[in-house]
Here is the input.
Amino acid sequence: MNYAFRASRMYRTKRENPGTNGLSQRRHALVSVAREMVDRARKRSQFLPDAVFQDPQWMMTLDLFIASEEGREVSVSSLCCASGVPPTTALRHIRYLQEQGIFERISHPNDKRISLMRLAEASRRQLARYLASIGSDLITGGQSSASGQTY
Here is the structure.
């Protein structure tokens, strides 16, 4: 089964209705940078389908960041899909990131059978700082350099 394709389809469905719901301009810009990173990773897989360039931990982290900035909750099963790897592999990565204090698992308020995941607040802040630091170069394709050339 092509997990990256399935996750890509799911991601596009979410993006068609971004639901910014009053996000500040800065937060919206950070979400745009995170989405651009996800899109580039997926595009890379389209051009080199037989190569293994997967980084499920990073893909899940970006997905949780986008969801937190948009005020959405993410179930464990949805996060597994976003990883682009088989669910058992994704669960192993989730467990590791949870042990490191990067992800937090919480119970669904109405359905105790569902576990929700979110970025720990310190991780969310650090990721926001990282995305802000690379944001302008990523969105403009590096055109902000003095020479205007991209290498």
Observations:
- Residues 3-140 form a domain with the Arc Repressor Mutant, subunit A fold (CATH 1.10.10.10).
